[in-house]
């Protein structure tokens, strides 16, 4: 027990040298048994049933290492049904880091958390503390209004007096007019409460008031070719909540096209492509999102343009492409810790203008061109075995395709089949090794950007069969429908996209 400051003080300050029995209040015998076991073995069996009591006991005895073990356990345990409880019991400076993480979990999973029993037991102030946050993650502001109504109606007699206090936090400017008319202005809590009426009617009449919530993720569109076929180094950020693109000023990076982009470890990486003198490059640039400056990191083993890039297990994978003369089947991955590129097994096919994604610990790459033909084939890489396996071919040949993991499936969208520019989309089920068609995009696209942001699949720019486009569409798998989003400021093809999440300076990449 000498490693514990509490016990060290207890044993050394005792006036009775031969004392063998000590009284330690407020610690149960089963908790003391676990603490003694930890003192002698350095390990302890933390379970859901004992974690909170063990945490409190370890904190009261100032056993820092055991407190941290319990915090790590709670962090892994976080889910929509217990995150509020963890947030609540760590309030009194017991574990400030865990308290903050639990609160962020509540905010980022609010739509699920709002249906939990724990949410219904919160105080009005706690509910306000949650729903007032700019970074509350909700796809529609209506979810906030409905959560308030649900909380009030759980104990209506006690809670109706908080209606105006809480409803003032709803951002009406982010709601559809039809929803306000049919759900807000007609709700009994609003119509029966003069303060609520004032809040809602003022906000309804002046819908400029209020601001969007901060998105949980930002879509970046980087580089490419403008309609004049001139290279551009422009970076635009898409705020999905505000449906708005914002130009991101940055210290000049040489423009690139047909490159890959990846977000990893708080940095954006641009991989390969054509550089400013239209030479195929193997160089890799890293963008610091705080300083908005570029830095060159280790180069790939091969020059690659029209390269397929994805992130898996903390590494960036680059596959296929063209070295300026030959379509490539080779593949390699980058380790940020060592700043090294290492080769992996080559693919079955040479693939340029293909696209890839990571899903459930594997990489899927689809379509492309091998110089002779546009490809229908697809294959899967398992990093544990360093092997590629051909999977069922797509229903269409697709070069310049967009491939992305979405809704636990692999989507292949658009491209060129050798005759026509495609607006069709299909989805692969890894469990059945089968493809099926889904709704087609609004327009054809070739060599465009593709990413998933806040539960929807976005396609960005590209060539529509006639001209370079700045248009942006998104797909919702729940409705199997495509909708139009705000256009980019700059139309371009051969751009690359990535999604930023968890940024401490997220507000810098959203509209003011």
Give the helix proportion (percent range).
10-25%
Please give the radius of gyration in angstroms: 27 Å
Fourth-level CATH superfamily of the largest domain: Kelch-type beta propeller
Mean pLDDT: 88
Q: Count the strands? A: 24
Number of domains: 2
Beta percentage is 25-35%
CATH topology of the largest domain: Neuraminidase
Strand order of the largest sheet: 3-2-1-24
| Bulk shape | globular
Distance between the termini: 55 Å
How does this model look, in words?
This protein is an alpha+beta fold and 512 residues long. It folds into two domains: 122-205, Serine Threonine Protein Phosphatase 5, Tetratricopeptide repeat (Alpha Horseshoe), CATH 1.25.40; 217-509, Kelch-type beta propeller (Neuraminidase), CATH 2.120.10. 25% of the residues lie in helices and 25% in strands. It has 15 helices and 24 strands. Helix 2 (29-41) crosses helix 3 and helix 5 (83-89) packs antiparallel against helix 6. It is globular and about 75 Å long.
List strands and helices in order, with pairings.
Elements: H1 5-12, H2 29-41, H3 51-60, H4 64-77, H5 83-89, H6 96-108, H7 110-113, H8 117-120, H9 124-131, H10 142-154, H11 156-159, H12 163-167, H13 177-184, H14 188-191, H15 194-205, E1 217-222, E2 235-239, E3 244-247, E4 260-264, E5 267-271, E6 284-288, E7 293-297, E8 308-312, E9 315-319, E10 331-335, E11 340-344, E12 355-359, E13 362-366, E14 378-382, E15 387-391, E16 402-406, E17 409-416, E18 421-429, E19 434-438, E20 449-453, E21 456-460, E22 472-476, E23 481-485, E24 496-501
Antiparallel strand pairs: 1-2, 1-24, 2-3, 4-5, 5-6, 6-7, 8-9, 9-10, 10-11, 12-13, 13-14, 14-15, 16-17, 17-18, 18-19, 20-21, 21-22, 22-23
Helix pairs in contact: 2-3, 3-4, 5-6
């Amino acid at each position: 027990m000498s490693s514990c400051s509490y016990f060290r003080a207890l044993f050394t300050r005792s006036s009775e040298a031969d004392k063998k029995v000590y009284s330690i209040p407020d610690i149960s015998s089963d908790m003391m048994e676990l603490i003694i076991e930890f003192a002698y073995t350095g390990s302890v069996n933390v379970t859901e049933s004992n974690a909170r009591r063990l945490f409190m006991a370890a904190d009261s005895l100032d056993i820092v290492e055991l407190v941290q073990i319990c915090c790590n356990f709670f962090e892994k345990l976080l889910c929509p049904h217990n995150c509020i409880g963890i947030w609540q019991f760590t309030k009194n400076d017991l574990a400030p880091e865990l308290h903050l993480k639990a609160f962020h979990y509540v905010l980022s999973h609010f739509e699920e958390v709002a249906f939990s029993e724990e949410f219904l037991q919160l105080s009005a102030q706690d509910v306000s503390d949650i729903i007032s946050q700019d970074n509350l993650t909700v796809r529609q502001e209506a979810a906030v209004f409905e959560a308030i109504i649900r909380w009030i109606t759980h104990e209506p007699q006690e809670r109706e007096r908080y209606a105006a206090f809480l409803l003032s936090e709803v951002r009406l400017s982010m709601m559809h007019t039809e929803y306000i008319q049919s759900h807000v202005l007609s709700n009994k809590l609003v119509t029966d409460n003069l303060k609520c009426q004032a809040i809602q009617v003022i906000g309804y009449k002046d819908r400029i008031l209020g601001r969007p919530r901060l998105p949980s993720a930002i879509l970046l569109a980087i580089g490419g070719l403008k309609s004049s076929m001139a290279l551009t180094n422009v970076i635009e950020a898409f705020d999905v909540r505000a449906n708005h693109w914002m130009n991101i000023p940055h210290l000049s990076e040489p423009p690139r096209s047909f490159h890959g982009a990846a977000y990893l470890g708080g940095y954006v990486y641009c991989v390969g492509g054509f550089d400013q003198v239209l030479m195929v490059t193997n160089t890799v640039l890293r963008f610091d999102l705080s300083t908005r400056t570029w830095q060159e990191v280790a180069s790939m083993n091969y020059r690659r343009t029209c390269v397929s890039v994805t992130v898996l297990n903390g590494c960036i994978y680059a596959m296929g492409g063209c070295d300026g003369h030959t379509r490539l089947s080779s593949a390699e991955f980058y380790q940020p810790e060592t700043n090294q590129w290492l080769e992996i097994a080559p693919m079955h096919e040479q693939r340029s203008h293909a696209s890839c994604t990571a899903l459930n610990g594997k990489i899927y790459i689809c379509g492309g061109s091998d110089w002779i033909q546009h490809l229908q084939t697809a294959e899967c890489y398992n990093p544990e075995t360093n092997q590629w396996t051909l999977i069922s071919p797509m229903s269409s040949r697709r070069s310049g395709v967009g491939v992305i993991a979405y809704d636990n499936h692999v989507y292949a969208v658009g491209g060129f089949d050798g005759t026509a520019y495609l607006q069709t989309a299909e989805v692969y089920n890894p469990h059945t090794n089968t493809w099926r068609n889904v709704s087609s995009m609004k327009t054809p696209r070739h060599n465009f950007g593709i990413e998933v942001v806040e539960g929807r699949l976005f396609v960005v720019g590209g060539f529509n069969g006639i001209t370079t486009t700045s248009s942006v569409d998104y797909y919702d798998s729940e409705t199997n429908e495509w909708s139009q989003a705000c256009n980019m400021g700059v139309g371009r093809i051969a751009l690359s996209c990535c999604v930023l999440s968890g940024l401490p300076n997220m507000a810098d990449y959203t509209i003011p």
